[in-house]
Design a protein that fits this description.
The complex is a heterodimer of chains A (about 190) and B (about 170). Chain A has a four-stranded antiparallel β-sheet with strand order 3-4-2-5, covered by helices on one side. With about 190 residues, chain A is of the alpha+beta class. Helices cover about 45% and strands about 20% of the residues of chain A. Chain B has five helices and six strands, in the order H-H-H-E-E-H-E-E-H-E-E. In chain B, strands 3-4-2-5-6 form a five-stranded antiparallel β-sheet. Chain B is elongated, with a radius of gyration of 20 Å. Chain B has two domains: about 45 residues, no CATH class; about 80 residues, Alpha-Beta Plaits. The chains are: A alpha+beta (about 190), B alpha+beta (about 170). The interface between A and B is large, with 95 and 90 residues. Strand 3 of chain A pairs antiparallel with strand 5 of chain B, so a sheet runs across the interface.
Chain lengths: ~190, ~170
């Protein structure tokens, strides 16, 4: 297993039984498994897939026949691009091909929340946080502040209400909202070599 | 945001398909012509409402299995200079300025990705050396509980939960 994977301590039979009643632990294990599979898959992709992924991630052509344009640049038929993209979607390498909107430009309020949760309650509290549709990302991290999640809400009042609700339902008082003062870079693009 | 733009967001946010004319399919759903949809998309991109258009990958599946949030205590007057430097690093995906907390005095938040925990640490060390900054922390990601795209302009604002369980 690669380092830095999900928190899966030495498992005993009792822990395994416990997992059945804690779906979040099960998810952590699935996450670790998916990461391992991903590492293997990354090594397996061929050069053309890598080139294609690099092109698809940025400057996707906003034209009538975008895949034909990409095909011309790669020097392969449009049908090959289509079948490869379909396969990469099916394999789950590509989550989707879509616009990434600036939530704030659309009038939404966003923030990053830091939460200090007792280690033994991390999975339980994470599960409760996940249940809010306004929570888009939620990660466990190695720190005193061990749960970090992002919120996309209609306005700042909704953020406040939601955080108060989480405080009351979990009894965790150390929750801090850290809205961005400035955004310098968002580039979720990965170069394949 | 007018009603047409909201409709474009509502339909396009779920992604286009891998067919010869994907925007024609989407335009049909919206009830406008393909040309009109492309015009709307170009305009949203120019205005910055759309940050980008393209494939969104599952990082783990793409071989980038480790990541950490790196937080930096950068003096206020040096923030822009620091951001300029850190943005040049390929493996840094995000760079935000956020408020400092009493017990967490960091002003800059970045995400660092790598193929291993060691690669993430290497990148952070390189950045620290280059800018001459010693006050930073790496918060390695230990579990991904949720990763979804926000769903805009839909009843209930439901999130579209993806990944993780596959």
């Amino acid at each position: 297993m690669p380092t830095g994977t999900a928190k899966v301590p030495d498992l005993t039979v009792w822990d395994c039984l416990g997992i059945l009643s804690h779906p979040q632990s099960l998810l952590a294990i699935l996450y670790a498994g998916a990461k391992l599979a991903g590492t293997l898959w990354g090594a397996w992709m061929d050069d053309l897939d890598k080139k294609l992924l690099n092109m698809l991630q940025t400057d996707f052509p906003l034209v009538s026949r975008p895949y034909r344009l990409i095909a011309e640049k790669l020097g392969i038929p449009e049908s090959s691009v289509l079948s490869r993209v379909q396969q990469l979607m099916k394999d789950g390498v590509i989550r989707k091909i879509s616009p990434v909107f600036d939530a704030r430009c659309l009038g939404y309020a966003t923030t990053l929340v830091a939460m200090r949760v007792p280690e033994t309650r991390l999975d339980e509290v994470a599960g409760l946080v996940n249940s809010y549709p306004q929570v888009t990302h939620n990660y466990g991290r190695e720190h005193k502040y061990n749960l970090w999640f992002t919120l996309v809400c209609r306005d700042s009042h909704e953020i406040e209400r939601l955080l108060q609700d989480i405080r009351e339902r979990t009894g965790v008082s150390e929750i801090h909202s850290l809205p961005a003062k400035r955004v310098f870079k968002i580039r979720v693009r990965f170069e394949f070599r | 945001m007018n009603e047409l733009q909201k409709k474009v967001v509502r339909v396009l946010q779920h992604g286009i398909s891998a067919v010869e004319q994907p925007f024609l399919v989407a335009a049909d759903l919206i009830g406008i012509s393909e040309d009109e949809l492309l015009r709307q998309l170009h305009s949203m991109k120019a205005k910055g409402v759309m940050r980008r258009f393209g494939a969104i990958l599952r990082h783990q599946k793409a071989g980038f299995s480790a990541n950490a949030m790196a937080v930096w205590n950068v003096p206020d007057e040096k923030i822009e200079e620091f951001a300029g430097l850190v943005m040049k690093f390929q493996n840094v995906s995000h760079c935000y300025e956020r408020p400092r907390l009493d017990d967490f005095p960091y002003s800059i938040y970045t995400m660092i990705h790598g193929r291993s925990r060691e690669e993430v640490i290497d990148t952070a060390t390189k950045i620290a050396n280059e800018v001459g900054l010693t006050e930073f922390e790496l918060l390695h990601t230990t579990a991904e509980y949720k990763k979804s795209s926000p769903v805009f302009f839909e009843e209930g604002g439901e999130c579209n939960e993806e990944g993780r369980q596959r």
